C-alpha cells in the first residue's frame, strides 16, 4: 500500500474532525429536539436537568418531578390600538409591539399650548361705585391662547392665558382695596369659564407664582424689608394714623385695637365678598397693628423650578394679581393690590392709613384649572395653531 504523504495525512485528519463536528451537531440537535417541545418549552424527556422552576416549563409537562405552569401567550385576538394605550407605553398586539399614543393633560409639559375655549360672554360692566375709579368701565372678552402653567396636588392642571387681556382695569381707594380681588375674579369668571367642562376661571394670584419658585427664590422674596425696615411677615403698630379699609379687619395679620394679630381670618388672595361691597374705611380707636405682606422684588429665572414657568409669568408686563398687600412705613401703612411688571412683583397703593386714597390700573392674566385626566385628541402643543386639542370638546 502506498504511504500517505504529510499533506495527505493532514487533509485526512481535517476531514475526520469535520465529520466528527457534524455528527456532534446532529446528535446535540436531536437531544435538544427531544428535550424541548415544539413551541420552545422544556419537555418531559429532559430528565438530565435539575433545579428547574415551574414558571419556565410548559404547562402540563413534568421534568424531574416538576410540573410546568408556563402558558404560551397568543396576542392575535387582541384588539387594543395605540390610542388605547398610555402615551409612551408598549404592548404586544397581534404579534407586534405597539407604542401607546393615548395622553391626557397630566402628560403635557409646562408651556405647552392647549386649545381651551371659554364660553362666549358679553362685555363686563364695572361701575365706579364699586371700583373706586372716577368713571364706569366696560371690559370686553378677549380671544386668548392658553398654555400649561402647572399641575396641582388635587389632580388638576392650571392653564394660563398666553398674553394679558387687552383692557386695563382701574381700581382705587379703600373701596377698590375691599372689592379688588372679588372684582378681578368676577370679571375673569364671567368671561373665561367653560360650563361644559365645569371650569370657573379666576385671576392669577401671588400663591400661583410662589408655587413655581425654588426654595432659594422663596427665601429671596420673603427676605424683603419695607422702606422703613419692617421685615416681611413682621408687624408694626400705629397709634396716630390708624385708618384701614373695612376688609382689613377680616384678614389674617391684622390687629384692630390690639397688638395681637388675627389668625383665623381670610388670606390675602381670598375674595370674601360674594357681591361687590360699598364699604370703604374706618378708624381704629386706639391702635392699628399691620403685618408687612408686600414684597417688591425683581426676580430671575433661576429662582424658579422651570424656565418656561418663569417666561409665562414675566413675558407679559403690567397685570394685576388678585392678591392684597399691606406695606409698613414709620408713620403710616399702605394698602393695595399686587401686580407684575418689569420681571418683578410690586404693589399698587390704593389706601393709606392717614386716609389718603389713590387709583391705579393694570390688565388681567386669567387662569383655569382643568381635570388632569382630560383626553388629548391631537396637536403637538408647540404653537397656538398646533395646540393640543381636548377630545369631545
Question: How would you describe this protein?
Answer:
There is one protein chain. This protein has helices at 6-35, 128-131, 173-192, 206-211, 215-221, 307-314, and strands at residues 62-63, 66-67, 90-93, 96-99, 103-104, 113-114, 124-126, 137-139, 146-151, 156-161, 169-172, 202-203, 235-238, 243-245, 255-256, 281-283, 288-291, 297-298, 319-328, 333-341, 344-352, 359-362, 366-371, 375-378, 389-390. The chain has 393 residues and is α+β, with helices and mostly antiparallel strands. The longest helix has 30 residues, at 6-35. The radius of gyration is 36 Å and the shape is elongated.
Strand and helix layout:
Elements: H1 6-35, E1 62-63, E2 66-67, E3 90-93, E4 96-99, E5 103-104, E6 113-114, E7 124-126, H2 128-131, E8 137-139, E9 146-151, E10 156-161, E11 169-172, H3 173-192, E12 202-203, H4 206-211, H5 215-221, E13 235-238, E14 243-245, E15 255-256, E16 281-283, E17 288-291, E18 297-298, H6 307-314, E19 319-328, E20 333-341, E21 344-352, E22 359-362, E23 366-371, E24 375-378, E25 389-390
Antiparallel strand pairs: 1-2, 3-4, 5-24, 6-9, 7-8, 9-10, 10-23, 11-22, 12-23, 13-17, 14-16, 15-17, 18-21, 19-20, 20-21, 24-25
Amino acid at each position: 500500500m502506498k504511504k500517505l504523504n504529510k499533506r495527505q495525512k493532514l487533509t485526512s485528519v481535517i476531514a475526520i474532525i469535520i465529520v466528527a463536528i457534524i455528527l456532534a451537531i446532529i446528535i446535540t440537535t436531536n437531544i435538544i429536539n427531544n428535550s424541548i417541545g415544539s413551541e420552545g418549552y422544556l419537555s418531559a424527556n429532559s430528565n438530565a436537568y435539575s433545579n428547574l422552576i415551574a414558571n419556565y416549563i410548559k404547562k402540563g409537562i413534568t421534568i424531574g418531578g416538576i410540573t410546568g405552569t408556563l402558558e404560551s401567550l397568543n396576542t392575535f385576538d387582541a384588539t387594543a390600538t395605540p390610542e388605547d394605550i398610555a402615551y409612551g407605553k408598549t404592548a404586544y398586539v397581534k404579534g407586534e409591539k405597539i407604542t401607546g399614543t393615548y395622553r391626557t393633560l397630566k402628560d403635557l409639559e409646562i408651556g405647552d399650548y392647549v386649545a381651551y375655549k371659554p364660553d362666549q360672554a358679553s362685555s363686563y360692566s364695572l361701575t365706579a361705585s364699586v371700583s373706586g375709579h372716577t368713571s364706569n368701565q366696560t371690559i370686553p372678552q378677549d380671544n386668548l391662547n392658553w398654555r400649561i402653567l402647572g399641575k396641582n396636588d388635587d389632580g388638576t392642571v392650571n392653564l394660563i392665558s398666553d398674553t394679558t387681556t387687552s383692557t386695563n382695569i382701574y381700581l382705587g381707594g379703600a373701596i377698590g382695596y375691599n372689592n379688588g380681588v372679588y372684582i378681578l375674579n368676577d370679571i375673569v369668571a364671567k368671561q373665561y369659564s367653560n360650563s361644559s367642562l365645569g371650569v370657573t376661571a379666576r385671576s392669577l394670584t401671588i400663591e400661583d407664582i410662589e408655587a413655581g419658585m425654588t426654595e432659594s427664590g422663596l427665601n429671596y422674596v420673603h427676605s424683603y424689608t419695607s422702606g422703613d425696615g419692617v421685615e416681611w411677615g413682621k408687624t408694626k403698630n400705629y397709634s396716630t394714623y390708624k385708618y384701614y379699609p373695612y376688609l382689613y379687619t377680616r384678614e389674617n395679620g391684622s390687629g384692630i385695637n390690639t397688638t395681637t394679630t388675627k389668625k383665623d381670618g381670610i388670606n390675602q388672595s381670598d375674595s370674601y365678598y360674594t357681591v361687590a361691597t360699598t364699604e370703604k374705611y374706618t378708624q381704629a380707636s386706639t391702635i392699628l397693628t399691620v403685618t408687612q405682606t408686600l414684597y417688591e422684588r425683581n426676580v430671575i429665572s433661576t429662582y424658579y423650578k422651570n424656565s418656561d414657568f418663569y417666561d409665562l409669568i414675566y413675558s407679559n408686563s403690567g397685570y394685576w394679581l388678585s392678591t392684597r398687600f399691606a406695606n409698613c412705613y414709620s408713620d403710616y401703612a399702605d394698602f393695595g393690590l399686587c401686580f407684575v411688571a418689569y420681571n418683578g412683583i410690586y404693589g399698587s397703593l390704593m389706601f393709606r392709613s392717614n386716609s389718603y386714597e389713590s387709583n391705579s390700573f393694570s390688565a388681567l392674566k386669567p387662569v383655569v384649572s382643568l381635570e388632569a385626566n382630560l383626553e388629548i385628541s391631537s396637536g403637538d402643543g408647540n404653537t397656538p395653531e398646533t395646540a393640543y386639542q381636548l377630545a369631545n370638546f
